[in-house]
From TrEMBL, chain A:
Residues 43-80 form the 4-hydroxyphenylacetate decarboxylase small gamma subunit C-terminal domain. It comes from Crenobacter caeni. It comes from the Bacteria. Pfam families: HPIP_like. This is 4-hydroxyphenylacetate decarboxylase small subunit.
Automatic annotation (TrEMBL), chain B:
InterPro entries: Gly_radical (IPR001150), GRE (IPR051215), PFL_dom (IPR004184). Pfam families: Gly_radical, PFL-like. The keyword Nuclease does not apply. Transmembrane segments: none annotated. Keywords: Lyase, Organic radical. The gene is hpdB. This is 4-hydroxyphenylacetate decarboxylase large subunit. The modification Glycine radical is found at G879.
């Protein structure tokens, strides 16, 4: 499994599009920096079985018919249909 | 080296000092009053200061997905379903140490686009954004632009971040969906639908020209359809969300299929109540998502105190998602939540909080009495409230966010004023609000103090301390003048004196009447004021008076673009009266076509994008079952005509009157030629300064315009208690304030005058050629509507106040006066009293608004040269306070040039 970046973890809260806070340490971290091992993966469309990728960033959601455009990076912790892929 | 404007004047022996009443000390002088916030607030403020304005697509994604799914639903229900989906899916973002939470998006300064309103920018910029997104990702984080330059503005793309409109940053992974969503609204957005119908308005081509030439600054129907209004928090504070849902269900049962005596929209009440219920359910889910996140954080946070704070936060959020708040902190959290819900529902700037200290007083009084909270703890919360309010970043078009708003959101908080019976309304909580404004000086909430002779002296002196801190607030607003205006203008809606007394400021200084409602808390009753008006960000926006004068003098031709903006008048303009008459005709031509086009824009908005949540808050929508689009608000006559550049125009007309038409020293042709040649100077854009004092002579200038230019500069100027100029102002105001009633809003109500400039005096000055007062091409107009032009007010501040009050301010929604004072001029307790005396003098003369920049001009110059050293420097511009580093150069230059009073 590839190492997660901070912005793909549940332990990170974004201050802005570039940086945020690591809740575990309270430290300011860069969004795209690699998170330490053991950090929990954040629910995002790209980690959901209903997401079908069309390119690196975009795809569609097949949770409901008809399928609707989606993007892999969207946080999905509030989505009732999110189903994690492992 | 080219000679500057100041040097040219000096060589000619002409004094145009930018200092008055003495000489400023040679050394940089800091502000006298400086206090520190609580440690917790310091930490949170640091997070704000390092945060970039950021957008993402959560809200627009879920809104669009749900909206498109329900294409057979009724418009109001379809919109409510979309809003419910959007609120329900927002990701909660909670930061360590905060006690109050919830925000627009999952960032400190989060925001998002609303392509259902306007999508042309993304359709036009799609390719460029894609290219920027493709390039990004290859750069390292080390290439990050400095935080200091531009504050939180993302002026350039970097790393994996793409700059949108030079203001917001978006992740490169989200650019694709951003553009795709804009395409989904192709031909469906308010902007595009209304444009199809606007073209049917006779004279639409003039409207296009008026917009291109910057005679008018912006359209509001699809940029900021709401705002510059006072919110009302009453219903959720009194009944809780569950109570309102029950109310809606009961009303739905009453109204289903019943016309209620109204054959046009009576049956709509069922759908409206249903829509309100749906949106509330979405907002409740949003709050509960935050509660769940706080609970989760409490469980995983090792620090015991922090864990306990998260748990308490979760409890508060869970409670206010359903019920009336129990404590002060719950009431304040409820207010934060409601505020953000409203500014998420629509593109809004200037959603003002109103008289918050009076609204929250019931909880404050009872918590203090019961020992549940201390005043110091309240102060800490009020300090944190300032961070949350300042973090609200409105998202609209570039021209509006930058050129008009300077990125400001105008969440003005009002203090003072009188209660329903006409007695002073000041309470202890309002003292703490002022104190928090000093300790945590941030742009929001800007504070408006409703001045009345009955307010306590120690309260007013505390306000002087706040002003001396350099925060740019509180602005002083005249309670009596405001009430007089309401009683006249809202007579068509049967306003009462009690409703006039419930007024607050919405936006910069857009005054609005309100209503009184009764809060019941633990067996005790409290009367609280709150907003009850439609927006005032609507109507005819910022007509540039000097630009229309330029077009008058040049037969309708724009001297910058050479376009024929208005039909040629072909008049010889042989008298002052003829110039004045033609100016009025062009003014009215602009107003008429803009009235019709803007009415259409707002009509399209109200049919598909009506406010549901905001309507629920405003009396008496819940009573009548009609939302904003069906005249559900208590007051609907809020559309206005906004002017810009008043004093530059007054000075220009006064100069023409005296030198061309009375004394005949010069011909109008000579003035026109000199204007078109910019009096032998380079343009402001060539010099890259928009201040009059920095302008430079052309190297090839032969001096042939000098005599004329010097004479124009020395002609009578507003701000000196000089009748020759002040009578021009009086004539204008008497005509303008009456003329506004000739235009009618889509709600069939007469319009009124609104005299603020926000930041438009910079943008519109930039597009205007030299003017007959001696102002040079491209330079910024005089600020606001009653501020003097830089360097021209030579007889002291009391003369300035006399000039400003030759007319009756109660004819207008507002007027606006900003004065720059050196910190040493008002130092110590005596200085405070002098400042209060000055304000009192203006209020007693009938002035509506006055506010101060207490700052050393040398500090501003240093800040312009070294912005990285001044991230937290705040200044007052027109009717708002903003971080120096986040305002445009044209406005910065005007502030530097503005006359600095060294003593009075």
């Amino acid at each position: 499994m590839t190492q997660l970046t901070f912005r793909d973890t549940r332990d990170y809260v974004a201050i802005d599009v570039d940086k945020g806070i690591d809740h575990r340490t309270g430290k300011l971290v860069h969004a795209d920096a690699e998170a330490p091992e053991g950090y929990e993966r954040l629910a995002k469309c790209k980690f959901c079985k209903h997401y079908q990728a069309e390119d690196a960033s975009n795809g569609c959601c097949t949770a409901a018919a008809p399928a609707f455009a989606a993007y892999g990076d969207m946080i999905a912790i509030t989505c009732e249909d999110f189903t994690a892929v492992h | 080296m080219a000679r500057t404007f100041k040097e040219v004047l000096s060589e000619a022996g002409i004094s145009m000092d930018f200092e008055a009443g003495g000489k400023a000390p040679a050394a940089l002088t800091d502000r006298e009053i400086q206090r520190e916030p609580h440690e917790r607030v310091k930490y949170l403020k640091e997070r704000y200061m390092e945060a970039l304005s950021s957008i993402n697509n959560e809200f627009p994604y879920w809104y669009t997905r749900e909206y498109m799914r329900n294409d057979l639903e009724l418009p109001v229900v379809r919109r409510a379903l979309a809003l419910k989906a959007a609120f329900s899916h927002l990701t909660p973002a909670i930061y360590p140490q905060e006690l109050l939470t919830m925000r627009k998006g999952p960032f400190v300064r989060g925001s998002f686009a609303m392509p259902w309103l306007t999508n042309s920018f993304f359709l036009a910029q799609g390719d460029a954004l894609y290219q920027a997104a493709m390039k990004s990702g290859s750069a390292s984080a080390g290439e990050h632009s400095k935080f200091g330059a531009g504050g939180g503005n993302v002026t350039q793309s970097f790393g994996n971040v793409v700059s949108v409109a030079g203001k917001f940053g978006v992740r490169q992974e989200e650019v694709g969906i951003l553009v795709k969503l804009a395409h989904m609204w192709q031909d469906k957005s308010v902007e595009q639908i209304s444009n199809r119908y606007e073209r049917m308005v006779p004279g639409y081509d003039i409207k296009e020209q008026v917009m291109r030439s910057l005679v008018c600054m912006f359209d509001s129907g699809f940029t900021l359809p709401q705002g510059r209004e006072v919110i009302n928090y009453y219903y959720p504070l009194e009944y809780g969300f569950d109570g309102i849902v029950r109310m809606c269900e009961e009303k739905m049962a009453e109204c289903a299929g019943d016309a209620g005596g109204d054959g046009m929209v009576g049956t709509n009440r069922l759908y409206n109540y249903y829509a309100v219920k749906l949106v509330i359910e979405g907002v409740q889910k949003w709050i509960e998502n935050y509660a769940a996140e706080a609970r989760r954080l409490s469980g995983v946070t090792p620090d015991k105190q922090q864990s306990a704070e998260y748990a308490a936060m979760a409890d508060r959020l869970q409670h206010i998602a359903h019920h009336q708040p129990r404590t002060f902190i719950e009431a304040l959290q409820m207010v934060e939540t409601l505020h953000i819900a409203v500014v998420n529902e629509d593109a809004i700037s200037g959603m003002s909080v109103g008289r918050l200290g009076q609204v929250l007083y019931p909880w404050f009084e009872q918590d203090i009495a019961a020992g549940r909270i201390t005043e110091d703890e309240v102060l800490e919360l009020l300090e944190q409230d300032r961070i949350l309010k300042t973090s609200i970043d409105p998202f609209a078009s570039t021209g509006v966010v930058g050129g008009v708003l300077s990125g400001n959101s105008f969440n003005t908080l009002s203090v003072g004023g009188v209660n329903r019976r006409g007695e002073s309304a000041v309470n202890r909580l309002e003292y703490l609000i002022l104190e928090a404004g000093v300790r945590n000086a941030m742009p929001q909430s800007t504070i408006a103090l409703h001045y009345d002779e009955r307010l306590p002296e120690d309260f007013l002196l505390l306000a002087m301390d706040v002003i001396k801190s350099g925060a740019g607030y509180p602005a002083f607003m005249n309670n009596d003048v405001a009430e007089q205006f309401f009683m006249q203008h809202y007579a068509c809606e049967n306003i009462t004196l009690e409703e006039a007394r419930a007024w607050s400021i919405g936006g910069c200084l857009e005054s609005q009447p309100g209503v009184w409602k009764t809060i019941h808390l633990n067996g005790k009753s409290y009367e609280v004021p709150g907003g009850a008006c439609q927006p005032t960000s609507v109507g005819i926006h910022f007509l540039a008076m000097p630009k229309i004068l330029e077009l008058t003098l040049f037969n309708g031709v724009d001297q910058r673009t050479k376009a024929q903006v208005y039909p040629p008048h072909n008049r010889k303009l042989e008298s002052y009266e003829e110039v004045w008459d033609q100016f009025k005709l062009y003014w009215q031509l602009s107003c008429k076509v803009l009235e019709l086009c803007n009415n259409l824009q707002h009509d399209i908005w109200r049919k598909n994008n009506m406010a549901v949540f905001n309507s629920m808050l405003k009396p008496g929508c819940l009573d009548s079952g009609h939302l904003i689009n069906e005249l559900g608000y208590r007051f609907n006559a809020t559309y206005n005509v906004e002017s810009c550049g008043t004093v530059t125009w007054v000075n220009s007309m006064a100069a023409l009157k005296k030198l061309v038409f009375e004394e005949k020293q010069f011909t109008l042709d000579e003035v026109r030629e000199a204007m078109s040649k910019n009096f032998g100077f380079k343009t402001a854009h060539e010099v890259n300064s928009f201040s009059i004092s920095d302008q430079q002579k052309r190297e090839d200038d032969d001096g042939r315009f000098n005599r004329l230019h010097f004479a124009l500069l020395q002609a009578p100027k507003y701000g000196n208690d000089d009748k020759a100029a002040d009578e021009v102002l009086l004539e204008w105001e008497n005509w303008f304030c009456d003329d506004c009633a000739n235009y009618q809003s889509l709600y069939a109500k007469p319009m009124y005058a609104c005299q603020i400039s926000v930041s438009t005096h910079g943008a519109q000055g930039s597009a205007t050629c030299a003017t007959p007062d001696g102002r040079l091409a491209g330079t910024t107009y005089a600020d606001a509507s009653m501020s003097a032009y830089p360097g021209t007010d030579r007889n002291g501040p009391f003369a300035l106040l006399s000039s400003a009050t030759v007319w009756d301010h109660s004819m207008s929604q507002n007027s606006q006066m900003n004065v720059k004072i050196h910190p040493t001029a008002i130092r110590g307790p005596e200085g405070s009293k002098k400042l209060l005396d000055l304000i009192r003098a203006y209020m007693r003369k009938g002035g509506f608004h006055i506010q101060f920049n207490v700052v050393d001009t040398k500090v501003l110059r240093d800040a312009q040269a070294h912005p990285e050293n001044y991230r937290d420097l705040m200044v007052r511009v027109a009717g708002f306070t903003q971080y120096w580093v986040e305002i445009g150069k044209s406005v910065q230059d005007e502030l530097i040039a503005r006359t600095e009073y060294e003593g009075f």
